[in-house]
Amino acid sequence: MELRHLRYFVAIAEERSFTRAAERLWVAQPGLSTQIRKLESELGVQLFERHTRGVDLTDAGEVLLERARAALAAADVAAGTGRHLEAGLLGRVRVGVSTDARWHGASMLLARFARDYDGVELSVLEGTGGALWRDLRDGRLDALLGPSAFASPDLHALDLGSEPWVVLVGGGHRLAGTGPVQAGELRGERIVVTGGRDDAAYVRTGADVFASLDVAADVVAGGPWPAVLAGVAAGEAPMLTTGAAALPLGVTARPLQPPRSLAFQLLWRQERPSPTLNAFIRLASQHARDVAVRAPLAVAA
Q1: Which residues contact 254 (CB under 8 A, 6 or more apart)?
Q2: Which of 203, 204, 190, 230 is nearest to 100 (CA)?
């Protein structure tokens, strides 16, 4: 029995027709019929009931169909592993994802890489940008997905796009509500931008936002993550960030008006990235383009 026999069998079972299966497989129908008869002879069972409208699976055929699909899927995985071995795409990629603010394409990128490069172990570490930046510089991470504020001259960078700033407000705060919040309403407020005490560059980024809006605000780093979100929920201070994956109960994300945006980058350290990291960088570049194309369509809809 060969894998092609199983592929022939599955195609016929799915099409319920030798003729349609032959067209799908680009093989001659007489040859397809011959191969199936050989398969039935080898197994010692009848796999199909032939009739004028096509074919139906026998009980034995139903059992074989389930097992044939599993065998073909395993063969495809093995073939993909072989291609990855040949290209050197086996090993591990360690990626940090900033929790200070999030690029909305990050989750889909990570899922896409895990699916397309299943021979690579993808390790993801979430944390504040400053802590992840140190881990990247010290070699504990291979790449960092985060705001461009964490870029530095000794790191390579790939632009991913930008996200609009939003203000997270707890239900007990005076700015609690829905819809956009005007920048002027934040004048004189204490605004949290991160849970990392060492995120000075990112704090400056938040301060620059209000400076560009000519709004005097006290922009600070809050407590340890995720306690900073608990403080927002308690109404202690609003938080300037981008869209969060999940918000605590009672916290509302209000778009900042006039709108401002935060740029995101993929950062990495190595002068000559490993094949696995190179694959992640290439996919990130493609994914960023895909996200940029879909975004205008979503706005138009």
Answers
A1: 166, 167, 168, 169, 175, 177, 178, 179, 180, 181
A2: 203
pLDDT for 121-146, tens place per residue? 899 999 888 889 999 998 899 999 99
What does the alpha-carbon distance between residue 118 and residue 103 come to, in Å, rounded to a whole number? 23
Is residue 75 within 8 Å of residue 3, measured between CB atoms?
yes
Please determine, for residue 79, whether its predicted confidence score (pLDDT) is greater than 50.
yes
Tokens describing residue 64? 């074989």
pTM over the 0.70 mark: no
* DSSP H helical ranges for 214-253: 227-233
Chain length of the chain: 301
Cβ–Cβ < 8 Å for 263, 148: yes
Longest pairwise C-alpha distance within the chain: 85
CA distances for 191 relative to 131, 178, 237, 281, angstroms: 21, 18, 6, 34
Give just the sign of the alpha carbon dihedral 280, 282, 285, 287: negative
Residue type, position 173, single letter = H
Task: Output the CA–CA distances (angstroms, integers) from residue 4 to 19, 20, 114, 180, in the order listed.
Answer: 17, 17, 28, 60
pLDDT at 298 over 50: no
User: Comparing 158-162, 164-168, 248-252, 271-275, which segment has the lowest mean pLDDT?
Assistant: 271-275
Q: At what angle do helices 18-25 and 3-15 cross, to 10 degrees?
A: 130
74, 124, 235 from 229: Cα distances, Å? 44, 21, 10
The rounded distance, in Å, linking the Cα atoms of 160 and 106 is 10
Instruction: Give per-residue pLDDT as tens, 223-244.
Output: 777 788 888 999 999 999 997 6
Residue 135 phi/psi, 5° resolution? -60, -40
Residues 227 and 260: their CA atoms lie apart, in Å, by: 26
CA pair distance 190, 171, nearest whole angstrom = 16
Phi, psi of 122 (to 5 degrees): -100, 115
